[in-house]
Amino acid sequence: MERGFLDRVLKFMGIEQEEEPAAAAEPAPVSDEIAIRRRGRLVSLPGAGAQQMNVVVAEPTSFDEVEALAEELKRRRPVLITLERAQGDVARRIIDFMSGAAFALDGHLQKVGDWIFLFTPSNVTIDWLPGEETDRPPFTSL
Hints:
Elements: H1 5-12, E1 35-37, E2 40-45, E3 53-58, H2 66-74, E4 79-82, H3 88-104, E5 108-113, E6 116-120
Parallel strand pairs: 3-4
Antiparallel strand pairs: 1-2, 2-3, 4-6, 5-6
Helix pairs in contact: 2-3
């Protein structure tokens, strides 16, 4: 079965649910924890502890939207940004601003794919799974 974008991101972060055989599969319960925001989503991730991890998924197209994303990073929430629809110079400004915010907060930045970047606060580290592009530099040019 082909994996969706969110499934690949969850696998990348090490939070992957095991798939059951098709005959025994039950419909997944609908979660009230996913809140749609202005061109972004807040996705709750099941945690091993009592606290729940939330990831903000956004697709900004203008620089005006980046301040709200930096605020989410300040709230210690990882931010996954897709810049496929942003123009080149706007995308560069967004990356520069978010990189500065992550640096100021002792956070981390990782280019996950073409035009997809993951910014995490200091309490979240980014690790590649064994066999997953471990030789990739932490950041390459747009």
